[in-house]
Amino acid sequence: MLDEEQDLVALRSPTDFDLLSTFLQDHWPQTIAKRRAYTGQTTGHFQERGVQNVVALVNIFVASILIIGAIVGLYELRTQPDAVRLGTIAIFMVLFAISLGLLTYARRVEIFAATAAYAAVLVVFVSGDLGSNG
């Protein structure tokens, strides 16, 4: 009956489809294996809430690092030439876009919009009084 792994169907689809959630669901350490007597195959079960909590904590940590790290880094570079500060903004933009792509299930257009908003905030910070050379 269930000769192939692809023959299994979930009654409810998972809430998150991002890469981190998928990876954790595939490698969750507290998986309970149940062996079917009539087929001899094993099916793994895990608490989805635990995966969601870990993903939420990772997202909060990465978002905090990207915001606080960018502000502190740009503040420390306030005496550096504009090219160095703009390069730093570019690096943080790339890290932000990568984190959105890996940690969320955002579409491409949403990633572009969020990255543009993030870059605008960083540029305003650099060009404002708080990030100026004087």
UniProtKB/TrEMBL annotation:
Origin organism lineage: Eukaryota, Fungi, Dikarya, Ascomycota, Pezizomycotina
Xref: InterPro entries: DUF6594 (IPR046529)
Sequence ranges assigned to domain DUF6594 in this UniProt record: 2-123
Membrane-spanning ranges: 54-74, 86-105, 111-131
Organism this protein belongs to: Clathrospora elynae
Key words, A-Z: Membrane, Transmembrane, Transmembrane helix
Pfam family, any one: DUF6594
Protein name, UniProt field: DUF6594 domain-containing protein
